[in-house]
Amino acid sequence: MPRKIIIDTDPGQDDAVAILLALASPEDLDVIGITTVAGNVPLHLTSRNARVVCEVAGKLDVPVFAGCDAPLQRKLVTAEHVHGKTGLDGIELPDPKMPLREQHGVDFIIETLRREPSGTVTLCPIGPLTNIASAFLKAPDIRSRVREIVLMGGAYFEVGNITPAAEFNIYVDPEAADIVFKSGAQITVMSLDITHKALVTHARVSAFEALGTRVGRAVAGWTHFFERFDVTKYGSKGAPLHDPTVIAYLIQPELFSGRHINVEIERQGEFTCGMTVADWWRVSDRAPNAMWMGSIADDGFFDLLTERLARL
Which CATH number fits the domain 3-309, given the four candidates 3.50.50.60, 3.90.1300.10, 3.30.200.20, 3.90.245.10? Predict the structure, then answer.
């Protein structure tokens, strides 16, 4: 029985690859909806991009809902310097024909969790956590109905990528992240500690291109564009591929290992706002609230990605 998931996203090239991986894996994952949030680019673009990706995959029946256009309490910070002005720079794609659904993304999350049997729907946030926190604030009863939250966000050993201390998704809306991490839901975290071990090298981009399909060309174009910023920044052989790790974990959890630890969100630090304070060494007396992944079998991850994308 495929696991029911909602992908909450701010596409973003790496978000796009994550969505494609999920849509290519129907025996493992049932994507019952995609909700969009402001993050990498503003909401009107993330909502456009999510539908563009569905059309690239040929999956026009996936419902896409626009969610929150700004963080809970802060001014929106975006990342066009990484993802380009559209958020999906790297390949020219037409505007989507499939419509946005009229319902607000937060209401879709609430309605779905109330409708489906308790403990059957997994939330997959791969952008700022504004929509998830908003749903939990509006409908506290749904917190206990979530099967698991598998998210991309945070950093501990790899430190920050938008500030010296903070990873982008958490930094954009630390108040939302704080609500989610304190929700009592089962949480699994794919942080920069993982994604910086999963680099899109030239050989891996070539493998996407070699698929010879529209999807393969799109992914190669996106990852090549995305790569230029991180290679310059880190001096590495390729860019980290962040968001697909969430989907890969749901398909092949044995690719990952980590620890169940306490994670707190810093919301007030002058230099550390948005930091995920991960008690990896368990030196505090704070109760564990998240499974923090620390290692990834990167070859297996890219093998899975290439094999699944070849299906589309």
Answer: 3.90.245.10
